[in-house]
Amino acid sequence: MPKSRRDKVISLTRVSKKDRAAKASHMDLVRKAAQDHAYCWVFTIGSLRNTFLKEVRDLWKGSRIFFGRNRLIAKALGESPEEEVRDGIHGVSKMLSGPVGLLFTDELPSAVIDWFETYERRDFARTGNKATQDVVLPSGPVMMRSDPPEALSHPLEPKLRKLGMPTELQRGVPTLLRDYKVCSKGQALTSEAAQILKLLLIQDATFQIVPLAYWEASSGAVKRTELTAIQTEIVENAAAGGIGGVGEGRKKGSNNASTGKAGRRKKVQGALIGESSVAGLEDEDEMDDDEMDDDEDDLEQRDSGMMLPAGV
C-alpha cells in the first residue's frame, strides 16, 4: 500500500533564539581571556571533528579556545585602537575572516608551534573532501584495510552494489567482477566514494590545527607564522570549503536549500570551546535583530492564516 502523503510528523515545538544577554556573555568571556593571558593565537583547522576538538580542549586546560562567530569575537576584542581591550590586539580582529579560531595561552610561541606541528588525528573522509591518494580495488574479494586484511562480510554486498561497485557473492564473500576505481588524488569525494572508503577502513582525512599568527602582550604586536607546504594547502582547503573541508560536492547540494525558506534562518557556524563546555554560536547575518524580529512576525501572521488539511 502506498504511503499516505498526509502521514507527516508536524513538530509544534519552538526553539528560542539567542538573545543579547547570551551574546554579551560570550563577549565577556573573550575579553576576560584577553586580559588573563599573554598570547593570543589565530588558527584554522583542517577536517574539523568535534571529538578531536574536545580532546584539544582537554590538552590545553588553563588556556581558552574560541571557535565561532568571527564578528562577535572581533567586536569583543575591539576593531580599532580606540576600542581594543589590550594594546595592539585589534590586529587580531582584522584577521578574523573565514573558518578561524582563537587560542589564548601563556605558553611560549616556540612550544605552541611545536605542538601544532606534531598534533594530528586521522579520520574517515567526508563528502566533498579532497582525496589524498588514488584508491583502486582489484578484481576479486573485497578486502578491508585492516591488519591483517579481512574480507567484507556478506550482508554488505547489496550495499556495495547500491554504491556502484560491480560485485556479487561468491562462496559467501563480496567479490569484484573487475577492477574498480574509488577515487583519484586531488578530486572531491562523492557521497558514494566516501562511504566505500569508510567500509574499507581507509582513513583519508587528517584533523590538524594550523597557526596563522599570534599576538603577544609584552610588545602588542601581531606576528604571522611561516607555514609549510602542507599547512598552506590545509589553509587553502579550509578557506575554499569551510571548517570541515567540505568542497564542491556538498555545496552543490545545498544551493537550493539556501535560496528557499531555510535560507532565511540562521545556521550554526562553529562552537565556542571553553574549559568545560562546547557551546554553539550562530552564524553571521547581515540583518540586525530588529529586522529578524519583523520577519518572524510576518511569518507568524502568514502561518496563522493557513489551515492544515483535514485528518492531519
From TrEMBL:
One of its GO terms (molecular function) is RNA binding. Associates with the pre-60S ribosomal particle. Residues 125-202 form the Large ribosomal subunit protein uL10-like insertion domain. It holds the Pfam family RL10P_insert. This is Ribosome assembly factor mrt4. Keywords: Cytoplasm, Nucleus, Ribosome biogenesis. Residues 241-312 are annotated as: Disordered. One of its GO terms (cellular component) is cytoplasm. It comes from Ceraceosorus guamensis.
